[in-house]
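Annex B, item 7. Sequence and structure tokens for protein A, then protein B.
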Amino acid sequence: MKRQVTTLSQFIIERQADFPYAKGELSRLLLDIGIAAKVVNREVNKAGLVDILGEAGNINIQGEQVKKLDVFANEQFIIALGSGGETCAVASEENEDLVPIETLVSKNAKYLVCIDPLDGSSNIDVNVSIGTIFSIYRRKSEESTSILSEFLQKGTQQVAAGYVIYGSSTMLVYTTGKGVNGFTLDPSIGEFCLSHPDIKTPETGNIYSVNEGNYMHLTEGVKAYLRWCKESDKDTKRPYTARYIGSLVADFHRNLLKGGIYIYPATVTAPNGKLRLLYECNPLAWIAEQAGGQASDGRNRILDIKPESLHQRTPLFIGSPEMVTMAVEFNLKNQ
């Protein structure tokens, strides 16, 4: 018997009743993101065949070299969000300031989008999984004089969040606060199809993901936790396995499905951490929690942090709840 296939479009339309305040706008916005992801996926897959690899020759607001594919992905998502008409402004990792969507169809738009168009860009040239991370907020008031202030909402105010991972297969994973669902792109029909319904992350795992090349710069609490991870203990199935790809989406996705913890802590050289709160940590934190996991900055719940700036950075401890709880305890005990 053939299994019934549910496409992303069908799934979103069927779940539209989950948004009592919406009249289809959020559904269309999510579909716009899905369309842009397909375009980016096409370019990622043929990146080795065209002049799209390598650096574009300029630096983004984070002080990082901008890759050609970064530029392309940023443009495609902004174009898709602009043409859809549901987004009034975009906050992107690649742009210092907000990008207003100034079209006739978007002048009364109700939604704000925060996005990292291409996470893991240092891996672009070596064929390692990369991704897109997005977060959607609803405007508090269409009469607000400051769009920037509208973006500085806590992560608890998100109405949708998700990521796309471009790897051996391409997946789109998202939540609207009613659980987490994953869709795999079927290139034969050009559609994202439901492949991972109602994702639940394991309570614990045996994988820890951290850049141990920075060990000497880590806080004492994180060092103590890493030493604990490497100890032998049958009851807790230690030592744990170290897995670190260097693409946040790829590391998070693996740990979400298999169980594990990802840590990008504060360091001596980056006391506020390096990951961005609005378009990296908040969306992944909400996905983690909706799947039964946890996300912390080492002290506090990520989703409770009140943003103060567009590109604000924060430490991140995210993954299986038992592992995050233990890592945070080590962090607090060893200040």
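Protein B:
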Amino acid sequence: MISGAATRFMADKMSAGAFLGARSWRLLPPLLFAVFVIVPPQTYVEVVARGWQGDWAAFYPRYVSASGGWTYPDGARLITPTYNHVWFVAYLLVYTLALAALRPLLKRAPRLCGLVAGPALILIPWLYLFAVRALLFPRFGETHALVDDWAAHATYFAGFLFGYAIAKHDAFFTQCVRMRHGALALAIGSYAVLIWAWATYNQGAARPPAWGMTAAAALREMQAWAAIVALIGFAHRHLRGGGVRTQSARRYLTDAIFPFYLVHQTIIVVAGWRLDSLGLPLWIEAPALIAATMAGCVATYEIARRIAWLRPVFGLKRQPPPAKQFEPRGDEDHIKREA
């Protein structure tokens, strides 16, 4: 949804050809870099943890040439090279290509935003997500294999298009602000019931009722969508505007999002593997893993943004944008104009 909104602001500024070129340049280099540089340590940890004997020098040529012969416990072959968590970038690239063809139709999308006004803001998206979860996920699952991931596409492509449609529809964000407290209560309540059901039926001897899985699907999607509405509402209410320091921090974090995403799972897997071998108690291991992940993400971003050839493969513009000069005069409107 966030990617769809960001895509809308970019697409409205340029022609279809320029838009496709810009998005491809933003997404394809990071995807290829991730497949051949960022993701391989995850696969190495995976195969070593399952008993493969060999060092990195023996592993990497097999990884890139798809000749490792590694298998999962069920006998399925581990396909390499792979994108692991960076499936999102591959999907987003495909969705962008589809969006280019749908742009003429989507110009009429704001007319549909009346369907998500008032309580419908919660009910209509929730009903759609619930239908996908209840009808498609049991049949197709979620594979991240792109070509057969129909339930995932029904969720993520719809979310991408929805974000594109509402990006400039102020009434949507205003309604999220109005409903933020109720949406937060719905999200927390749904999550609490799900946790109770999990503790009751997954950990105990009781068997869930026949309708239990359907109810769980409904609660899961209510928790998910209500949380999204609440987050948008609180962000729109509290994180807009602000002074020079707030604006500067947001610019820093906005640029950091993509590099953080690209490297976070590799850091988690490698650091977790090393920490696990130490046999530390959970109350030490968990904070250590979180701290290592944050430190690794920050360090990666700080290095990547300073090296010109690394910037494109981490999803950053070739040159950092020039710093804005703020001259606060006690006038909030002036600060907004400068921003």
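Comment on protein B: The chain has two domains: 2-39+83-238, 244-338.
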